[in-house]
Each structure stands twice: as C-alpha cells, then as structure tokens.
Amino acid sequence: MNTFGPPPGSLGDGLLGLSQRLPPANLEAEQALLGALLANNKAYERVSEFLAAEHFADAIHGRIFAAIQRRVEAGQLADAVTLRAEFEHNGLLDEVGGPAYLAQLLGAMVGVINAGEYGRVIHDAWLRRQLVDIGETVVNRAFGAEPELDARQQLEAAEQNLFDLAKDNGAEGGFVSFEKALATAVQHAAAAFSNPGGVSGLSTGLRDYDAKTGGLHKSDLLILAGRPAMGKTALATKIAFGAARAILQKAREADPNAVPRGGVAIFSLEMSCDQLATRLLSEEARISGDRIRRGDIAQRDFDRFVEVSRELQALPLYIDDTPAITISALRTRCRRLQRTRGLDLVVVDYLQLMRPAAGTRPESRVLEISMITQGLKAIAKELSIPVIALSQLSRQVESREDKRPQLSDLRESGSIEQDADMVMFIYRDEYYLAQRQPKELTYDNAEKYGDALDKWQRDMEQAHNKAELIIAKQRHGPTGTIKLFFESEFTRFGDLDTQHDGGYGD
Fold it and tell me: 0.70 cut: is pTM over it?
C-alpha cells in the first residue's frame, strides 16, 4: 500500500490528467505568420515589439523567426531564397525542414494586416504555457520537490513567478502623443502652483526639503543612507509622520470626520512595532524615549504622553515589523493595503535586512541587493507611489578626514545608485566632533590643551543640534545640501530656523 501518494480519485488524479494534456499551442498560427513574414518583411513591424523566437511552440518555427528577425533588423531581405542560402551555409537547412518546408510556409501565409493578430495568438499561447509551467512547479514544490522551502516560502515564490510573468508581458508599451504628455505636465505644474510652497508631490512636513524637491513623487525610489547613529530611522519616521499628517489633513478639509483613503506603510525590519510607536510618541510629546522605557517620568509627562497618543491614533500609519521580509511578501502586502485602505508612501527600514524573492538563489550579495532594489523600484512604478528605502554605508567613510558621505560609500553602490531616482545622505558633524574631544595627556602644556579645548567647544557649539541632508543624486532636479534641526534627546528632526536664536522652526 502506498502511504505517500494521493489516494485514487483524489486531487492528485486530476493533476495527473492535467499533466498529460498537450501544452497550449497554435502551430497553424505560427506557420501562417512565418509565411506572411517571408512574403512581406513589412509584416515584421506588426509583431516586433512583443514577439520573440522563444514564444514559438515549435522550435523549428522559433529558429526560422530568429533568422527573419536578424536579417530584417540588419536591413537585409528575409525571404525563402535568402533564408535557404543562410541555413545551407550554416548547415541547418535540414533541421528547419529543408527547402520544401520553407515553400510550405509561404503557402500558409496570411496578409500583412492579419500578422499582428496571429502574433498575439502565438504570444497568448506562450503565456499559457508559462502558466502551466508555474502551476506544475507549485504542485511539485507542494509535494516536497524542494524541501528547503516551507509552505509560506512556496507561496511567496509562486507570487513572484506570476508577478515576473505579468511584469514582463503586461500591457504593451508604445508612444504617447506629445499633446497628452504636455497635458500631464501642466496638471503637475498646476498642482504645485495651487499648493503652498510649490509642493506638487506628497508633503514630508520638512519645509526646506519640500521646497527643494517638490515633495515625494509617485513612482520614485528614494534611498536614504547614513552611518550608524546618524539618525536614518528618525528622519524616515519624521517623513512618514509628516506625509501621514498631510494625507489626514487633506481628507478632512471637506469633512472633519473623514477617514482618509490612503496612508503610509512602514516596514520596520530592525525595530518592533511598539519600539517604533514609542519613538514617534517620544518625538511628538518631547519626552525622552529612554525615560519612557525606564518609567522615569512625572505624572504631567505621562498625561502628555497619553494625550499625544490619542492625537496620533487617527493618522493613517501602518507598521509591519516582519524581520528579513522578502521582496515578494512586501509587494503582496503593499498591494493588499492599497486595495483595502489606500497607500501613498512606503518606507523600508532598512534595505540590507531584506531578502530576495523566495526560491531565488543569487550568486553574490551584490546581485541580491540588485534584485531587491529593482523589486522596490518595480513596486513604486506598479502602485504609482514613492518608496523610501534606508541603506547602510560602508566603513570607508570613517577613514576619511571629511566624513561626509559620497555615492561610492553605498554598500553594493552600483545597483543601489543605478535603480534609485534620488539618493540622500544624513550627516551630523556633532557626532564626529564629540569623538575628537581633546585629551590633556596628549598636550605638552596646559596652555596648548586649553586652546585646543576652546576651539573644540566652539566647533561643538557651531554644530550643536544641526544635521545635513545631502542630496547626492536627484533624477528630476538639482543636488545639494539641506540644513536640518536635530534634537538628540528625542531623536527628532525638524526645519532649521536660521533667523532666530532658538534654531527650531518646525
């Protein structure tokens, strides 16, 4: 008795029956299209954008199409005579059926007008074959073909395969009239003109950043990088908080009780949900997070803490703290959130803690990061939202005298820099100055030590509560540096008010 396989009459029999069916194909359409191409090379223009040799079910047909494609794109004639000569020269004539089969294809030709329809029939059959292959892989994995993948990872791998198939073979591209492109550009300009400060995208709550970039723009992948302790997470949560508040305010302009359709998703791979919530509460209530964790707060502070938490409850902020989340799982959750509640911004903290799609085995760390950044950019484009991904910097920053980051400091910099629409670095000179406090033992006399200490104190005063947001790459605008205010006690960023002594303009 077989105790491992499915019992007779169960689902397994149905799957066996499916596996015995012939794969979807339309050989008549393939022959008719090839005949049309051989008779009139202009027919190639109707299928060149979406059809490839591997889409043909018959390998011989694929080889003939590849030869036609190669000659036409080289500006050469591709007919039965020239192809016969080429295949004879390569010793492949018999493999493609000989001269008789090329003549037979001419007899099966259709008109140039119908070539596009036949091409789409061939492409559709190929897509169906890919779906069959994906289905068989799903079934085989479920029966234990790849035991290293558990059920959840198998589900993610299946979603990734389907997404890749849809992404590569979705809506056909094509030209957009300049009139339509101009209309879209005018709409964006009008949105910026009608909004305070000329913000055409989603506001971050940071005045100078919005002024320089116009806010956060749809389909953009933004990289926010820095060394540890620079405040990457704090700045990212500040931006997420500002965007969520802007979404809520816009929804309540017409109805004070409205529930916003849209929101901000934070994927916190390093901190738990409650830790991130505590940080947000600390920033808004101006109570040290360390004191909150130790319970070292007065009743007045606790009352303020509770009051602020009630105010923040209405914000459309959603946190996912799944560790080492895969790009396919992140995509699925973003799609679901956009479908159910709306989604305007995604923040990923941070890039190097993510994993590529389940079932993939990148050959190197660079290739792995490349797959992740490409996946994040694809999510930004597919959902038409900005995606902010935090990234670590390499240690080579520490070896330079000027420790301001550069694009080359990005870990796996080639793929990250290439895929990003904007790359930003957060830098705080105060952090490095604090490490360089003069030590009396290193000086010959007290006077030299005193002079060094005075200079150090002046430098510290100059850098106190100040941070730099360095825009090193911006695909749609200028680069440069934005000065920010930073309160280390509350890990809070804000606008830097240079006109008043207080320094804080948030």
Answer: no
